[in-house]
Structure formats: C-alpha cells, structure tokens
Amino acid sequence: MSQYRIGIVFGGRSVEHEISVLTAQQIIAAMNKEKYEVVPIYIAKSGEWLTGGNLLDLDFYKKSQAEIIRSCDAVCLNPSMPEKGALIKVNSKGIFNRPSIIPIDVFFPAFHGTNGEDGTIQGAFEIAKVPYVGCGVLSSAIGMNKIASKAVLQSAGLPVIDFIGFNRYDWQIDHEKVIADINCKFNYPMFVKPAELGSSIGISRVTDETELRNAIEVALIYGYQVLVEAAQTDCVEINCSVIGFNQYQASVCEQPITLSEFLKYEDKYLSGNKALGMKGATRKMPAPISPEFTARIQNAAITAFKAINGSGISRVDFLVDLKEEKFYVNELNTLPGSLAFYLWEASGIKFSELIDRLINFALEAYEAKQQTTYTYSTPVFLGREALQSSPKNSGK
User: Fold this and answer.
1) How far apart are CA 203 and CA 267, in angstroms?
2) Whole-structure pTM value
3) Cross-strand pairs, 103
C-alpha cells in the first residue's frame, strides 16, 4: 500500500512554541502509520528548520535549543525546486553532486500563534506550490488578528463584543488620549488583549485605571496592536469546532472550566496532564445547554468559519449568557490546541479519522487551486507596435 509522506511542521518563533510541540506530538501519535510516513519538521525558536528521528520523542525537547539544533539535520523549503513539496538538506550533497532532497506530499502545520498560525507559513507553502493542511493565508491572518476578525464577523451579521483597537505608536504618542477614549466607552472591569496571540498569553482583566495602564504595557510586549473590550460578567465560555472545505461540519460544544475570572494559560495547559495539551484541561462536554441553543451556536460557528474563508479546521470560541441564551463570537482559532480532537471524538470521529479528513481537505484545496490561472501572456515587452497589432487592441 502506497503511503503519503506527511511533513508535520511545528515549533516556530512564537510564545506558544511549547504548545505547538505538544500538538505536533499528539498528531504524530494518532496518525495511521500504514497510510502515512511522518517527517517531523521542527522550527527552532531562533528560526532554523530541522528534521530527524529525535524529534519524535517528547523528552527530546527538554534539551536546550542549542543541543536540539546540533542533534538534528538542517533543512529548508526551496520554492524554486521542480519537485513538488521538496525539502532540501542544508550542506548535503547526493549523487551527481545534487542537493539531498526529502520529498513531501502534504505539509501539516501544527503551529500556534505568530509565525505559523497567522498566515506566514501558509504564504511560504503557497509560493512553493505545495498542498498543506488548514486555513490559507487570508483566513489564517484574519483569524489570528482579533481586531480584523471582529470586523469580518460583524459584516457576516454575527454578534461580537464592542471593542477599541489601537497600536503601539498610538500609545507612545498620546497614551492619555488612548486611556480617555477607553474610559469614555467602557466601564470597569475590562479585558486587555494582544491583538495577535493565543493561549491567553498577555491577556489581563482590569478593574481600575492603574491596572488598565499596566495591562496595556504588558499586551504591547507581545504585539503591536491591542484590543480592549468590556468584561461580560454574566457569560461563560462555550467552544465549538468546525471542519471542512466548501462543505462544513460542526462538533459538539464544550464549556471549559476556569480556575479564575477567565480562561488562562494555566487552565488550558497546566491544570491536568501537561503532555495532553488542551486535552488535559477541565471541561463540561457536551456543554450544559439545550439542543436548540447548541444548534444555534454550531450554525454560528460554521458561519464564522465561512466568513473568513476557512478551510481544514477551526475552534470557534463564544461568550454565552446561559440564562438569556444569548451569545457573542469571541474568536476563531485556525490551528486550535490539540486540533480540538477531543471535541471530534465526542462527536463520533476518532483522532486518526480527523487527521485523514484534514489531509483530504488539503489535497482537495490544492486541486481546486490548480484550476486557477496564475499567468497572463501579453506582448507588453515587444513595444508599442506589437501592442497595437495584438488581437485585443485591434478589435478582433
């Protein structure tokens, strides 16, 4: 039986680096080894692309970054290579003095946060003309930026919490105006968030102006843009995952259990078995809501995913007033922790089957792109006379 060679790409220059490693290890462990040959592709915190058998062992990541880099083979993705999806081993020569090549059938990104979940790695895959799992450049970028995604969700008719967005330059040139604008629009408590980050890193709940100023300074450490919104004191978080390409399916809903006023990094990744990632967090599943309200949230999750032109998988997070059965779309995660596989297992789809579907969606998306023409021939470099005599300009 022929196998697909799947390049699992993970790590990266992101504060969510370690969570990406956990997700990648979960994906690799769940993959059907009769169908797929796994090639681990680890991007170090300093940006080096690496591969090697050591990367399949979770304990290997206890080593220092310098030790990891020394113990692996350096590789790169060269978009000019004629072989589809080829990795090149750096400083390695094969027979006839050609670079040593590792062919990849499908790339499977398992990043979280910047430089991976935000459309950057997807852009590299697009330039290299290779199939890859998950959302494309635009949908990844929109999903990652909380300010942009709220605007898109609003245009799709979905309810979102009112917000103010600003950037580091706005804060530096007149932080008193920023504070005045926020205080004029919202009452305390408020939430302050980096616009482009996940795993609840850099997020603060503030109850007065001193805390607000400190929280903005913290958020600006982790990103150029900041989002501030009023806290919804009567709401709980409800999450739902969506998969598909052109046609979509929603999972069961969950209610994560928080240890504090909001779902923090510790709640998500340190409240249970750390090796399980988001799987180890505490949750109620299915969420304790009516079937009718569940269907409304599932439909809203699909609408949100379609609004950003999503593909592959997402987890859509909602803030929900359980008494009023009213919800707000909080954010979309285009590469959710643990791929939200626990939601799909509760929906009757095993993790291995979820991986199969995501790889198939990647191949479908790749084939769909092949139907698009990316070049256009014109006589523009042949001079004015050639342009005047071309069929387009002669009226023929």
Assistant:
1) 13
2) 0.88
3) 86
Hey, where are the domains in the chain? 4-133, 162-230, 234-369
Residues near 196 by beta carbon (within 8 Å), at least 6 away in sequence = 113, 114, 118, 144, 145, 146, 223, 224, 225
* DSSP assigned state of 132: B
User: What is 234-369's CATH topology?
Assistant: D-amino Acid Aminotransferase; Chain A, domain 1 (3.30.470)
Each residue's pLDDT expressed in tens, for the chain with a length of 396 residues: 568 999 999 999 998 999 999 999 999 999 999 999 999 999 999 999 999 999 999 999 999 999 999 999 999 998 876 666 689 888 766 656 677 889 999 999 999 988 999 999 999 999 999 999 999 999 999 999 999 999 999 999 999 999 999 999 999 999 999 999 999 999 999 999 999 876 578 899 999 999 999 999 999 998 899 999 999 988 999 999 999 999 999 999 999 987 656 555 455 445 455 555 555 568 899 999 999 999 999 999 999 999 999 999 999 999 999 999 999 999 999 999 999 999 999 999 999 999 999 999 999 999 999 999 988 888 777 766 665 666 554 444
Q: Give the three-class secondary structure for 190.
A: strand
Q: Where are the beta strands (DSSP E) in 26-140?
A: 36-43, 49-51, 73-77, 86-93, 99-103, 106-109
* Closest by Cα among 374, 384, 339 to 24: 339
Q: What is the CATH number of domain 4-133?
A: 3.40.50.20
User: Residue 171 is which amino acid?
Assistant: W
Pick the CATH number of 162-230 from 3.10.20.30, 2.40.50.140, 3.30.1490.20, 3.30.390.10: 3.30.1490.20
Give CA separation, 356 vs 34, 245, 300, 331, in Å: 12, 13, 25, 26
